[in-house]
Specification:
With about 260 residues, the protein is of the alpha+beta class. It is built from 7 helices and 14 strands.
Length: about 260
């Protein structure tokens, strides 16, 4: 199966682009979307159902929100995690599909000011997510955690490391949090498959960075040992990003074949 993670930056603005991509360019079995920016009832569920997808949504008005559309039926859907940080905003959804657990997450953007509440919330979110995944690993062997993690982990994950020093998404403290998450027993599927390949998932609208490939790798597919063994291929599909019409997201989807 093909599993994709894609920050769509408003699903209602992107639905035509996404359905065209799914139908004509890259049929995806399980599509995990972040930053849908709508409540559950506003999500274009019927559009995806016409494309033969089952739909699970954890939406929020104007901000955040995540959704999963799957060609395979869900055995269960979880949108509440009994944690005050993970449940404060609509940033996470978990589904079980056969023997696979899929968690789709939109990590907060944060701030470069360590006294800013946005910075503090991002740090707390990483701590809560790490604890949750660590506990989940005691019950399930095959877990895939995907999403926009809003951190570029190493120098190879940005087009110019010098320019990103001290910037949000490239702070040492943020990198430590992501590494701590990986240390619970997760593989960074793309980087382990391609240790030296530069490939980005986000490019700034304001600088038209996509046309010079001036980007960051901030979207990930992380997997436990059992799931990583079955990851056959992974890569970024920039077709949706290199569009002028319909207007693209500032992210491109990362796709893993399991």
């Amino acid at each position: 199966m093909k599993i994709a993670t894609f920050n769509v930056n408003s699903i209602r603005s992107r639905v035509e682009l996404i359905t065209t991509w799914l139908r004509d360019k890259n049929p995806i079995d399980i599509l995990c979307m972040q930053e849908i920016k709508c409540e559950n009832e506003q999500f274009p569920t019927q559009t995806f159902e016409k494309e033969k997808y089952f739909v699970a949504v954890n939406g929020q008005k104007r901000y955040n929100g995540v959704a999963i559309c799957s060609k395979l039926p869900f055995d269960s859907i979880k949108i509440k995690f009994d944690d005050p940080i993970l449940d404060l905003q609509k940033r996470m959804i978990e589904v079980h599909v056969e023997d696979l657990v899929i968690i789709n997450v939109y990590v907060p953007h944060g701030s470069s000011d360590e006294t800013d509440e946005k910075y503090i919330f991002k740090m707390k979110f990483y701590d809560a997510l790490t604890s949750y995944v660590n506990e989940l690993k005691n019950r399930y062997k095959k877990i895939v955690l995907v999403g926009d993690f809003n951190v570029a982990l190493t120098d190879i994950d940005v087009y110019n490391p010098r320019l990103f020093q001290g910037k949000v998404g490239f702070l040492k403290s943020e990198k430590r949090k992501l590494k701590t998450l990986l240390d619970v027993g997760l593989h960074d599927c793309f980087r382990e498959k391609y240790p030296s390949l530069k490939a980005y998932t986000w490019w700034d609208y304001r600088t038209a960075g996509i046309w010079r490939d001036e980007g960051m790798r901030i979207d990930y597919m992380l997997a436990t040992d059992e799931a990583f063994k079955e990851c056959k291929e992974i890569g970024v599909d920039i077709w949706t990003r290199k569009r002028k019409s319909p207007t693209p997201s500032d992210h491109a989807p990362l796709i893993g074949e399991i």
